[in-house]
Amino acid sequence: MQSETPPAPYSRRAAIIRMAPILGLTFILAHFLRSAPAVIAPNLRTELGLTPGELSSLPAAIFLGAALMQLPVGVFLDRFGPRRTMAALFSLAALGAIVFAVAQGVVVLAVGLFLIGCGAAPVFMGVIVLLSRWIARDRLATGTAISISVGGAGMLLSASPFAAAVELYGWRASLLVVGVFSFAVAAALLVMVRDRPEDAPHPASTETLLETIFGVRHVLRDTRIYSFAAVTAVSVGALVTIRNLWIGPYLNDVFDLDLIARGNVIFVVSLTWIIAAVLYGPLDRKFDTRRGVVTCGMLAFTAMTGALAINSSNSVLVVTILLSGFALFAPMASPIFAHARSLFPDTHSGRVFTAINVCTWSGVFLMQMGTGAILDAFPVDELGRSPAIAYRTMFGVLVIALLLALMIYRRVEDVRPSTERDHP
Q1: Taking CA atoms, which of 14, 25, 176, 247 is between 20 and 30 Å from 32?
Q2: Which of 126-140, 302-316, 325-339 shows the lowest mean pLDDT across its residues?
């Protein structure tokens, strides 16, 4: 019968083109759901009377959920594949957006964000695992960078467009629509995504599920994991803490910008980050080093963070330039994960990436709580706004953390992309 005839195999390029739209859309939604709280943070603070510490605990719930899910996600990716793992868990993110949209108290708001963190946890790692199976190793950084930049469109949507939607319809109605749409995207992942090329040999695996789970222990014993984890935890943590949490309050408290004006600045900063993510991709092949690219990027990122720490200007133009410079050097995930991929076998890639990521999201969670504590140490005015010195102190602490993380990362040996050319 015709229904029993197996379909003709897709070429790799055709299959990638087929999968790219739904993977890109999933990545966009994951970024949007993690980034949107920054725009409405001052609104939540006013509506619910939150302190800086309480405010920081809300988006921190996203990254607590992401951190707790990383090791299970690694097992699921290696055992069940990215398609089923991403589809099942992204449904949790959709549910979380709906819970957040209808919540009437701080606890339920945090629960919604926690579910978003759990559900979005496999998106980045799932995409990287797929890329590691579908493209050559020496092009993994470029592929990852392109994926990150596509996902970054979610950051753009969470800036000016989301601010405009909030002005028109309110943040609850806007997030409710996003949550319902996210359920449809989760279902589409099952239909559109394929775990590996049909012309690629399926790696033989005699691991039982229990052995796969215990394989995490083997990965965690490799000390190189923690060098990668340190640099991702602090670099990603600094970016996410500023972009997804404090940029809105910072622009509100220090520069007195309203919702739309904040959204415009955040849009410019997010666009800079997306452009930079694309530019970072081919640098490891251009200079034939991954550790060198990350090192220079970290030094430049630290310098821009230091500039924000010493900035005393009240000019919106100046702070927009500084925040854009901060975003310009921030997207180092592509060369970092390509570096990690070069040191570990394909059969453990899911567990390696997620072992690094559990430390990354744990670092984001701790950094958000820590920066909230820093701001809490300074008195607020009658409108609940923190003083400029509080934010400058926060940026100064981030500078120290970035330098320490770079020192730890430098202990890992480099692997030149030229040694991996044409390696599947």
Answers
A1: 14
A2: 126-140
Alpha helices in 281-348 (DSSP H): 283-287, 291-310, 316-328, 333-341
Q: Count Cβ atoms within 10 A of the Cβ of residue 160 and give its class: 0-12 exposed, 13-18 middle, 19 or more buried.
A: buried
Q: What is the pLDDT of residue 89?
A: 92
pLDDT in tens, 127-162: 888 887 777 766 767 777 777 777 778 877 887 788
pLDDT at residue 183 is higher than 80: yes
The dihedrals phi and psi of 410, each to the nearest 5 degrees, come to -65, -10
- Asked whether residue 312 is domain-assigned, the answer is yes
User: Between 110 and 350, whose confidence is greater?
Assistant: 110
* Class of residue 154 by CB neighbours under 10 A (exposed 0-12, middle 13-18, buried 19+): buried
Distance between CA atoms of residues 293 and 273, nearest Å: 17
Specify if 420 maps to a domain: no
Name the CA dihedral angle for 231, 353, 59, 328, rounded to a multiple of 10 degrees.
50
Q: What is the CATH number of the domain that holds 192?
A: 1.20.1250.20
**Closest CA relative to residue 242, chosen from 179, 322, 311, 174:** 322
The answer to whether position 202 is within a domain reads no
Rounded Cα–Cα distance for residues 88 and 44 (Å): 30
- Which residues have a Cβ under 8 Å from the Cβ of 163 and sit 6 or more positions away? 39, 259, 260, 262, 263
Domain count, the chain: 1
Pair of tokens at residue 191: 């239909």
Q: Looking at the domain assignment, is residue 1 inside a domain?
A: no
Q: Over 80: is that where the pLDDT of 369 sits?
A: yes
The confidence score (pLDDT) of residue 401 equals 96
- The predicted structure's pLDDT at residue 394: 96
